[in-house]
Amino acid sequence: MAKTERKVSWDVVRVVAVLAVVVGHITRDGPVVHPELGPFAVHLPVLFGANTLLVVSAYFICVTVRRGRTARWLGHKLARVLPPYLVAAVVTYAVLRVAAPRFGWYTPDSTDLFANVLLIQTWSPEFHFIDGSYWTMSAQVLAFAVAALLAPRRWLRGPALMALLWALIVVPVVVQLLIRRQEDGLLRLVYDGMTLHRAAVFGVGVAVWLWTQDRLSGFHLTAYSVAMLIGMEVHTRSEDTASTAAFGIALLVLAAAAGGPDWNVGPLARPITWLGGISFGVYLVHQELGYVIARLLVDMGVGQVGRLLTCLIAAVVLGWLLTRVVERPAHAWLTGGRRAQPQGPSSGGSPVSPVAGPRPVSQPSTAAAGPVTVLAAEPASRNDA
Questions:
Q1: How many C-beta atoms surround the C-beta of residue 270 within 10 A?
Q2: 284 domain residue, yes or no
């Protein structure tokens, strides 16, 4: 197999997306969920980062899933994402058990911890997310499983693949329109539990990959992306059109990263690559822990600029620790020290320049990362794109 070269452009996309998630949650969602946090020096009015990360994740699923045995590929993926997630969830739970009662916030209980550890938070309104950002995890793991299942199926090509891609847009929209007439019931349970409102986001990642392989025209990719954005407006009931538009712009940048030459960022390449390598860890620890830190800073009288900078630095430091102490050692131990498949952006590994592989392509079905909605106790985070 041909050797692949690292593309810094993917790290740029990842870093911008993760920073958008962090800044958006802290400055936009934080004061809504917890008004006592007050305004920040910067306010990001649109949310698009988690959607962007899930598109990139789906793209790299297509790049890597057909390399070797899919069972081994799936094992590597789960070994990469689950250990840091579980540690982050337990640590966040422990911190909230202490801090939330003091602040008058909702305090997660053992049932919430159980649901989050098992990634079943979306399957019942009785479960609360320990961290609103974790909605992407169940969608991501489901996407990995579906990709591993479909990758060996050689019938998944041509018209069958196109039908599946468009079904990822059409079917969830139809389900959404049906459940508006009846908010409770089986359709609602499946819609929420499987995060169907984000299925098309993964479809866009697959479509972008097909386009780079000359298996999808630019016109078809554009039409599919526009249809996905329209479907997103249906799912969110047009309550955050600005974020949908921002996500559309992010897709143009992502397509440039996928289909164009690597970006020359000069001396910024090294820090961007480093930040890209810890972006998954940053994503896992930034939101609820960031709210706790922001509240402590408010109590200490720290100003708007100081609060924002401290939250950003804390997210990076904690994300680095999670990556260095948990993610990488756990992955090496669980995989017997074998070198991992090149990882997609949501899994903390190094993005690579894709090399055209044998035909067919895998199709993940269902993120977090997609992202526009969280089905949890943090209402503002439900529109996280």
A1: 11
A2: yes
Q: The tokens of 115 are what?
A: 């649901």
CA distance linking residue 73 with residue 216, whole number of Å: 25
Q: Which residue type sits at 52?
A: T
Q: Burial of 150 by CB count in 10 Å (0-12 exposed, 13-18 middle, 19+ buried)?
A: buried
Q: Give me the mean pLDDT over the 243-262 stretch.
A: 95
Say if CB 50 and CB 369 are below 8 A apart. yes
Domain that holds residue 23: 8-383
Give the chain's domain count: 1
Residues 111-116: contacts with CB within 8 Å, 24+ apart? 113/89, 116/89
State mean pLDDT over 170-199: 84
| Alpha-carbon gap, residue 139 to 286, rounded angstroms | 19
Distances (CA, A) of 238 to 241, 257, 280, 320: 6, 29, 29, 36
Residue 2 counted as domain residue: no
- Average pLDDT in the 316-340 region? 89
Phi and psi (nearest 5°) for 362?
-85, 160
Considering the entire predicted model, what is its pTM?
Answer: 0.84
Collapsing DSSP to helix, strand or coil, 183 comes out as coil
| pLDDT value for 298 | 95
